[in-house]
From TrEMBL:
Keywords: Phosphoprotein. Residues 1-110 form the Response regulatory domain. The keyword Phosphoprotein applies. GO terms for biological process: phosphorelay signal transduction system. It comes from Sphingomonas kyeonggiensis. The modification 4-aspartylphosphate is found at D49. This is CheY-like chemotaxis protein. It comes from the Bacteria. SMART domains: REC.
């Protein structure tokens, strides 16, 4: 699952995941759409932008994923202090993304299981 409010970045991540033979369970651009995807199920992992449009943050989605034991990566262009304290141990994908950085962070999720 991808949570990203910038359409071009979301499309780039979808392309990266496709090239890495990963299947995108869905893409969300808001907390509401992200929570709906989590509720629908079928998610093995997520890449989530921390800050979304309109001042929203993805923490409610992170909470829902954590409650279900679904691993996730926090994507951010900012400093580490933007990450909520209880999620600072989660892998971080720094912007700008590269296919190599996406692959490495996703592989780290698999290794952690």
């Amino acid at each position: 699952m991808i949570v990203e409010d910038e359409p071009l970045i979301a499309m780039m991540l979808e392309d990266f995941l496709d090239a890495l033979d990963r299947v995108v369970a869905g893409t969300a651009d808001s907390v509401a759409s992200g929570l709906a995807l989590v509720e629908a199920g079928g998610i093995d992992a997520a890449i989530m932008d921390v800050n979304l449009r309109g001042g929203e943050t993805s923490w409610p989605i992170a909470d829902a994923l954590a409650a279900r034991g679904i691993p996730f990566v926090l994507a951010t262009g900012g400093a580490g202090d933007m990450i909520r304290e209880d999620y600072r141990n989660r892998p971080v994908l720094s912007k700008p993304f590269t296919m190599d950085s996406v692959e490495k962070v996703l592989d780290s999720l698999v290794a952690a299981d």
